[in-house]
Amino acid sequence: MTAAAAARQILTRLTDVMASRLHAQGKLDQVVEIIGECLSSEVCSIYLLREGMLELFATRGLNQSAVHVTRMAIGEGLTGAIAQKVETLNLAEAKAHPDFQYRPETGEEKFHSFAGVPIVYRERAVGVLCVQHVEPRRYEEVEIEALQTTAMVLSELIANAELIDEEQALGLTAEMTGPQTLTGLTLVKGLGAGHAVYHQPRVEITQVMAEDTEAERQRVYRAFDKMREQIDTLASQAEFGAGGEHEEVLETYKMFAYDEGWSRRINEAIDSGLTAEAAIERVQQHTRMRMREIDDPLLADRMHDLEDLANRLLRIVAGQVGTAASQGLRRDTILIARNLGPAELLEYDKRRLKGVILEEGSLTAHVVIVARAMNVPVIGRAKGVRTTVREGDEILLDATAGSANVRPLPQLADAFQARFAKSREKQATYASLRDVEPFTRCGTRIQVMMNAGLRDDMSALGLTGADGVGLFRTEFQFLVSATLPQRERQTRLYRDVLDAAGDKPVIFRTVDIGGDKSVPYLASEIAAQDENPAMGWRALRLALEREGLMKIQARSLLEAAAGRSLYVMFPMVSEPWEFDAAKAVFDEQLAFLRAQKKLLPERINFGAMLEVPALAEVLDMLLPRLSFLSIGTNDLTQFLFAADRANPKLAERYDWLSPSILRFLKRVMQSSIGSGVDIGVCGEMGGRRLEALALLGIGYRRLSITPAAVGPIKELVRKVDLAELTAAMNGWLATPGPSLRAQLSQWADARDIEYD
Predict the structure, then answer these.
(1) DSSP H helix total and E strand total for the chain
(2) What are the residues whose beta carbons fall under 8 Å from the beta carbon of 408, sequence distance 6 or more?
């Protein structure tokens, strides 16, 4: 039996129950009997949220005396876990699950298998539908999908029968009246103040079961046509120019809009007896549950794009096509959304949009790329947004700190505005240094370069006055593309970047994918089974094995730099032979272009990134082959400390001012003296003012940092006497404590050098 057939069998019988004159309890009693019979299930139970607890409302197979007696909190037991996480459980042996709790009054000790789905009302779990069997077994997918469809019908039943408290369903609590603070993940840094506007008006699904299946199917077909037309129009109106990464993001978005598999799943849900709206919501719920199971951040972001399209499709089919963007922003706005697709964000008035808060989201999400280009601060993974923020609430967003103050007290609002003003003053000060060369007080010139990865990032080169691009992450083009970027597209990007840089150098790092930067079209090349992807088959290791990938990029870079100087840097070099192998690929392509009488770069400078500690032990062998060396502090530090930088429990051990990392960096610098090799640091460490002081004190004279940090670091450099700082650092490193943070802070305070 297909999922649609199983669901239709249940819905056909439920239609009569829903239309009967039975009271709500009688309907629930019949529902559990119908589901039990259709799925041949020995137990079927319904739990509903009442007064903050999940209460057993109806059951077939458990003790009837437990009805309205057995209660559990959200998060308690298997049922509570389903409601808390709003996700399905399917267990062959319920007692083996860590959340299992035994309730003796139910008489469920003889049952082994367990499956449960949340009953969702207005995006909140207001109940749970469960089935159980004596024999241990996992339930078939058709059974789970039938349960999920039935849960949608139950949602309508319990709402109409007022079996749940409306305020609980909406999440209205006392917390929604006073000042609150939300925390989340910084996605795009910045400050913003405005009033809360929800991206999507809520679509109320008032009818779940279809009266005419074919009519519902035609409604969906028409909605798909309209949605695709909208997406095509949005993509053609993007303001970021032709051929850029934003265009590739939107092309991926369009790919989902035309995906036949997605429309087929919606049609199957309609076949089960659902209305068009209910069918879309049914498939969307399944997508959300899949997203929670996806570890790969890139694939999860693609699923977010699909959900964004589902929301758009649902609004079209329901006749509620207007979003907050189409209605227009009437005042300064902080936008609230579960997730946003790139096309959705482009619809908003950039003059009024002061920030975005996402319930989900990640650093690699497509919308983050667009938001950065729009200069809109964003935080993601902000839990409890819908239970905390009401439409129109005043919000002070500090995306740099990853927090938002909701309905702030007047004194907090005044302090925020003062900070905002101070931030603008600082930015004006930093902007005034754009054309000022960063010399120390003792007259030493420090190179302050910027990191980039997108064509649009290059505008910051002129705005900040950076000395060049010390790290251009070429993999960004690979991450936002639906397919492997072709040579012509790569060449166009690299040429545009060099044109934008003018006479300033750009160091191109060859593609660094794999690990936490997975791309689906190279899934077979990336060892997904790596227990620690950061130390697995990634970066240069992957590129050398997949020879075509490296050759295409080498040819693209060489053609783009014709008549100019080219700087190429290889990532994650562990031993000299890896550098030699990578350079050989470029030499081969150079010889090919020379034979073709092509215009060649005037000069090619090859460098390596020191991220793997082993490379430091063979630098004497490698330095004679290099023009420059860049230390990638992010990966290097986690490898030195064996501390995953993404693990919050290890945050205190990931300290750039630890004597071990500073002594290591000092030894690397000293080993390069006399080699003629330009050595510098690229990564977040150099963009932090206190850490930058430490780097200057141990001999580093080239820093490549985020564009936003260029001004602050240039200002810092002008306040430093290197002889004094170097002497202090030598003394501290000779007899260090656990960290040099306290000593450096005191040293900076005594000289009125700000470092926060």
Answers:
(1) 28, 22
(2) 179, 394, 396, 416
Topology of domain 3-170, per CATH?
Beta-Lactamase (3.30.450)
CA distance 159 to 162: 5
Q: CA 452, CA 478: separation in Å to the nearest integer?
A: 14
pTM of the model as a whole:
0.58
Cα(698)–Cα(727) distance, rounded to whole angstroms?
9
User: Rounded to whole angstroms, how far apart are CA atoms 96 and 93?
Assistant: 6
Alpha-carbon span 238 to 45, nearest angstrom: 51
Class of the CATH domain delimited by 180-201+325-424: alpha beta
| Homologous superfamily of domain range 213-318 | PtsI, HPr-binding domain (1.10.274.10)
Q: Per-residue pLDDT tens for 534-571?
A: 566 566 777 777 777 889 999 999 999 999 999 999 99
Q: What is the pLDDT of residues 106-155, one digit of tens each?
A: 988 889 999 999 988 766 788 999 999 999 988 887 788 888 888 887 88
Q: Give long-range contacts, CB 8 A cutoff, 24+ apart: 604-608.
A: 604/558, 604/561, 604/565, 604/566, 604/568, 605/565, 605/566, 605/567, 605/568, 606/568, 606/569, 606/570, 606/579, 607/507, 607/567, 607/568, 607/569, 607/570, 608/569, 608/570, 608/573, 608/579
Fold classification of 434-750 (topology level): TIM Barrel (3.20.20)
Coil, helix or strand for 81?
Answer: helix
